Amino acid sequence: MAGLNSVHRRHQHLFRHSGARSMTWLTASAVAISMFTTLAFLGLLVGLSVDWLRPSPETVLTLPQRLEQLLSATPSAGLGFTGLAPAIFGTVLLVILMTLVLGPFAVAVAIYLSEYAARGWYTDMVRIAIQNLAGVPSIIYGVFGLGFFIYVIGASVDEMFFADSLPQPTFGTPGLLWAALTMALMNLPVVVVATLEGLSRVPQEQRYGSLALGATRWETLRHITLPAVLPNILTGLILSVARAAGEVAPLMLVGVVKYAPASLVDGRWPFVHFEQKFMHLGYQVYDVAMHAPLDSGRLELIAVTALLLVIVVVALNLSAILLRLRLGQSTAQSESL
Amino acid sequence: MDRRRFIDRLSGAAIKAASALVLVAVASMFVQIFTVAFPLWESVEWRATSASDQVLAAPPEWVGRTEDLLVFRANSRRRHWVAASDQATLWGQLQTKDAPIDQWSTLDYRIALPPEFARQARERVVMILDGLQLLAIPEPSGTLAVIDVEHPSMISQLTTSPWDTVSLAADGRMMIQSYHNVLSLYQLGVGHNRVPTVIKLSEHRLAQTPDQILVSPDGVLALILIGEKVLLWQLYSDELLSMEALGAANFLSWTSRDQFKVLTATGDEQYFRLKGFPNFDMQQLFEPQWRSGYSSAVFRWLPIVENTGDFPMFSLWPLLWGTLKAALMALFFALPIGIPTAIFVGFYMSPRLRDRIKPAIELLAAIPTVVIGAIAAVAVAPVFYQEFAGFLGMLLMIPAGVAGVAVFVTKRGDAVAARWQLETLPLKISPLVLVLAVVGYLMGKELEVLFFTGDLGRFLVDTYSISMAQRNTILLGFSLGIALVPTLFTISEEAIHAVPRQLAAGCLALGSSHWQSFRDVVLPIAFPGILAAVLVSFGRAIGETMILVMVSGNTPLMDWDLFSGIRTLTATLALELPEASRNGMHYRILFMAAFLLFAFTFIVNTVAELTRSRVTRMTTTWQG
Amino acid sequence: MTVTRVLCLWIALALDVSYAVAQSATSMTIVGSDTLAALNTHWANAFQTSQPSASIDVQASGSATAPPALAAGSATIGAMSRRMTQSELALFSGNASLTLTEVIIGYDAIAILVHRDNPLTEISLEQLERIFSETRGCASGEPIRLWSDLIASDILGNRAITPYGRPASSGTYGFFRHVVLCGGNPVPWINELAGTAAIVQAVAQEMTALGYVGGDIQHSGVRRLGLTMGQGPAVRPSDIAYPLRRPLYLYFTRLRGEELNTMTCEFAQFVLSDRGQELVSLAGFSPLAPLTAQAASRRVCDG
């Protein structure tokens, strides 16, 4: 490694041959072009959003008022556009529910693969299944969620527990719970892979030590291994939360609506209404792009909604990356110890 | 102690169960999506059932006059109509729902039939077509007289062909005639000026002359009684199915869309219901279909959500074609950017800088595609369309300029290259890219004025008859390409970076250049990984939905034209599945499309995974 | 530990927000027409202001979504920009417990749009059919693909017409296909965009575009064409004689033989009230005549 780094410093070496020069140049240009494209795209997004924020002579509202309107829970004066608060709230509830399902499930699968499984066809199949889940188009999860969660499981739940209200379905219709389950299945590989990565870094000696002291497998997991991989699990969960906030296609099939007032949580039993339809920030971007009112600020409004989503998603990803960086340092330390 | 053991066992069991659940989930995804699609292939069957209720009964004073009266019933959008007719008069009772409230208002009327139609009492049919109430009276000589009941003086005489037996659908637009053993299918319509029209759709030759023909109320099926045998004619797919003999049947009638009544010789009434999807066959999905109004067989995706008696067309080819076209176009844009970037970051860049840059690119991968789609559709599409020459100039100028400089530094760039700082090279090139973009844009505009009469779009039309749509494949490929670059980059960069550096260092020590060591040593090892990256991105392009829904224009076309729009499988699923009625034919066909998509990406991803694991094995062998 | 604290804070915040907006609610779902989406949202909102205990979800993906959702019971109100067809009504005739109440809540004219600078001012139904239809069910004549077949103009030359329309789920599509295409098949190169606003915007930016949309479109980038039929003068979308004018419907499900339930009934009456009808005209549709609305309002809840 060190040798190559010193090569990097002596640049003449790199460019001695003409072919080498042109390839270096071309690949570097590709980097420049990707940077340029990305910056152009982000610049467009941010620029349009800034235009929205800047008070124009047509709008009487000041900036704080406009922001308040954007984030409010009620529709604005212009037809067709709703404040983003219910969408943000719906997204938060969706990801909380998804995390509750996804976290234990994915961690258990990762633990199985890393700690329990012996190499064999069964383990290979589970591995292949997870790897393949990562590549399945998101819309397929929506199709599956609609066909299986809603029309098979949901319909059965209705027949068993809500037979009184049939043919009015309670759970046999798109809703929050099924959307959360669909998202959990979609994000399973993300969390499993992140957790596996962490588990592979926990020194084997720590487990042996714990087992040698008479702890059971579960106790070793509970007190030694899991605390060590907690940051990895969190990284995976944060990444999947970001994905759940931005993924729209499957949700269009399993329960997202254009407009649903905040009735997901209220004072009535069971307080959180899993069967209800909800609003979603990512869907709101789609909706606003297709239906936003046709006044002069349409483009800017779309951009600002999209930028808000980008900020949420990027912030979540950034926290996952920071977590991982800190984590890389800490494991490096423990290894050096 | 026991409690600890118990908890240990319990947790172990739970963990194993979770792993099994993964397999169950993947298997059930396959099975579930397939089982919804599967009933399409089930064979069409009769099932004997009990009687069903009639929608509208005839007024009591007409009942029992079956000898000299013909009683008709027709139901449509806002009208129920019961009518009776003898040789010379038509009595009708019309119930309409034109008031804002769901209440029927009733109107009785009586029309004297023109004397020239008085003869043919048996075969006249009352129908409601496109909101008009029509009395259609087919003449055996081959004319079809259509009387608009609201304006009885308006009689249209349409020419068909001579017949022995005839049947018209009440709500649909179908008429079947038979002349000896030849069956002809006609479609009726109403023109803009309330003038009825008739078009011949198809013709079939039977072994025998049919005794009775009966079009189903919605005009999608027909029963043909020949002796004791009944044929089912699927009007969509134009296929004749032979059904088993029903015994001594002598009269058939439809009682609902999928149920019919048989009156046996002994006077018993038997009811049968059709099971399965009589209008489905695989040819419909994958072979060109001929329909009335088309000069030849065509591939069309044309689902009919609202059942108007028209034939839906479910050809999957335009959707598959669009999916493939979009994915290839996206790769065309993404490959030349993504892979060289991966080479630079994975091979040339110092590991320290690489570790800083990689997360930034991963952040880009996290940008939701709905955002890319929204910005591309709303902000970029119109500009791209209006300033196409400028953009084309940009698209050509940037690679051309970069390649030009590459040629320059290859030929005689020693002095320039000596001053290059590898780490900051891309940053230094960025202004050049910006300059190239601006120059390209201006040059495009300038050339447009000089050579293309100031309007490239118009020039293309006038010279090559190519018309550009705002929602075109180039723009679509570009926006989808942007979404693919991070994936393409991440996987191929990892493959390149995984190649042990000692190998490259060894080459350098032996006197090869950096590029030679990359080309001859690193690339062969990393190649399967790069291939995997291309495959995975291809899979992503196939499965991407939101960008396609918003940018593609959703035109189910099959052509090579890069200036026209497309429609993809995923966009069709997202747009149509929420409204397809559950377990209907459209719903099941969409599930089958989803299954195809699922299976295809599954294969692509497995292949990618296998190639990638080869790299891992090779690199670990070398490192080991 | 910090992470746990942040998580706790986050959840607490989420719950806090939720309780702030939470209300005890009686829930209804409106499913159906995208054309009516904005109107539904505004009805829902205005209704909730007067009935704080009500909660209304709006789902808008096309009129065809309404009947299955109503029949399955997943929605109680269907919004449709066309009347239910017989096969859709059959979903209810076979249903032992549910039946429908149909209410016309206003009228909508489908506007034919072109770019602001397009010199075309009127178009005939026949021409529209020749542009949009592949099979030409009304047998209007040869297909038209180029602007030069419609109008001799310097800006348009012989460029191809880019047709814009709504997806098959939309009631606007159904109505357009029914009336203009006489049920014929549309050409496959019609750009189908999922939202009315998206179509208007696309037409405003594309000189060669010709699109149809539901609703009363006021946008400086587009012009609405007058329609001619036969020899008569062009009819504007605001005229009663405009051929592409259609009633808009709400369908309410109720138990067979019973009245509408209280909340649904109140909503129906609200829709037909002065305030509800005011929102209809605000959303760009023509409201009912006041007397008709009042008469309808009196009878709407009856079984």
Give a short overview.
The complex is a heterotrimer of chains A (337), B (624) and C (303). Chain A is an all-alpha fold and 337 residues long.
Secondary structure layout plus pairing:
The complex is a heterotrimer of chains A (337), B (624) and C (303).
Chain A: H1 2-9, H2 11-14, H3 18-53, H4 63-71, H5 85-116, H6 121-135, H7 138-161, H8 176-201, H9 204-212, H10 217-246, H11 249-254, H12 281-291, H13 298-336
Helix pairs in contact in A: 3-13, 5-8, 5-10, 6-8, 7-8, 8-10, 9-10, 10-13, 12-13
Chain B: H1 2-37, E1 45-49, E2 70-75, E3 79-85, E4 89-96, E5 105-112, E6 125-129, E7 132-139, E8 143-148, E9 155-159, E10 165-168, E11 174-179, E12 182-190, E13 196-205, E14 212-215, E15 221-226, E16 229-234, E17 239-242, E18 249-256, E19 259-264, E20 269-275, H2 282-286, E21 301-302, E22 313-314, H3 317-348, H4 351-366, H5 369-386, H6 388-412, H7 414-418, H8 425-451, H9 456-464, H10 473-498, H11 501-509, H12 514-543, H13 546-551, H14 569-576, H15 585-623
Antiparallel strand pairs in B: 1-20, 2-3, 3-4, 4-5, 6-7, 7-8, 8-9, 10-11, 11-12, 12-13, 14-15, 15-16, 16-17, 18-19, 19-20, 21-22
Chain C: H1 2-21, E1 26-32, H2 37-50, E2 54-60, H3 66-72, E3 77-80, H4 86-93, E4 98-109, E5 111-115, E6 122-124, H5 125-132, E7 162-165, H6 171-179, E8 191-192, H7 196-205, E9 209-213, E10 222-224, E11 226-228, E12 245-255, H8 262-272, H9 274-282, H10 290-299
Parallel strand pairs in C: 1-2, 1-3, 6-11, 7-8, 7-9
Antiparallel strand pairs in C: 3-12, 4-12, 5-9, 5-10
Helix pairs in contact in C: 2-9, 8-10
Overview features:
heterotrimer; A: 337 residues; mainly alpha; MetI-like fold; 0% strand; globular; disordered N terminus; disordered C terminus; C: 303 residues; alpha/beta; 5-stranded mixed beta sheet; 22% strand; elongated
